[in-house]
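Hi! If you just cloned this repository, the fastest way to understand the data is to look at a raw example. We've pasted two of them here, unedited. The first protein comes first, obviously.
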Amino acid sequence: MNEYDYTGDKTKNYFTAYLQKCIRWKRWNYLKKKEKIGRVEKPLEESLVDFSSSIDEMIELRYREEILSKEREGQYPEWNELADQRLTEALMMLREDERHFIYQHVFEERTFREIGCINGIKEDKIKNIYYYAIYKIRKWMGGKS
């Protein structure tokens, strides 16, 4: 005799069938809900990892935007405010005039002709000093000559 066979009281049997159906339904709902939560939780965990790296990217982007807005207003960064420590050290090893010409050409975006007019030096000499300074920076930082 199995559990589905009729064993006596008809009302008791209907109630037992009803309870079995309810238990199956609740169990099925529980398993479906658990499966759904499992599917949703895993992508959320993965997205949290991606989200933390995107926060770093957003901070870096905001920092760059602030620097650009300051440059638009004519406020240029100081040498010690540069992010790359090796680059800052290499720039500090240059002569004062080399740093000055790099600063005018890179940060102030002046042409070699304008730099020459401002400093009273020929354009070709400014170019030579500038490119030799760039060569020295690359050499000190271990890059291509």
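Ok, and the second one:
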Amino acid sequence: MKDKSNMQIKEFSDLTGIKRENLRYYDQIGLLSPEFRGKNGYRYYTRSQLTTAYLIISLRELGIGIDEIKRYIDIRTPEEMFSLFSSQKQHILTEIKKLKRILEVMQLYVDMAEDAIKYKENSINIEYKKKEPIFLGPIISNDSLDEAAISFYNFAAENGIDIGYPLGAIINKKDIENKNPLYATQYYFKAMHDQNSYKPEGKYAVFYGRCAYGESDYLYEKLYKFIDKNNLRMCSDAYEEYPLNELSTKDENQYCVKIEIMVEDM
């Protein structure tokens, strides 16, 4: 039995979420015209047009232009539907993957910040940590700090890694022990699903302080004294991260730095 139910433009607009001015425009170009008009000139839409309206909304949200949508609606066939929906399904899956990655990166920054604000500034704690996945870059040559970081970002991008992940630096254990000038020997991303290496599981001395990028040497002196005073021995390179950085403060001297070094009893 043919459905004779109908809706005026306001009701149809409220139900579909398509603005009335857009419905009038769609009528003008023949994309979605009302099923009939009353003697008073009012537009009336039927329930069967809701599906078409939903299709238009969905395709517009996917970034498909009005002309392309109209072309499909004008010539729609089962074959055209299969082709359109299959291509858009792949597009949707790709976008979902991108959005999940953005959410993952944002959550990493939130988790790092929440951990950082739990600790008193310049505090040093001994913690047992499980192994943590990271995406590790190559050994750094004698480049400047910025050049080395940019080189790592390029390396990550070439390997299909999202460069939005939180950045970390590895500082050589011997340089810390010998009180040499400290430079990053490798960079890494805190990447949950794109890892090529791990921070090892074990007992760590964890230090939270404040400094700008590349100005953390004096913090390592404090950490080394703490380790020595507590009869501990360093058994790994240091991992340096900035849980609170340019994303959360304008003053680089207020960046929160986190330094982790695996230790063992002497």
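That's it. A detail worth noticing about the second one: The CA atoms of residues 94 and 149 lie 28 Å apart.
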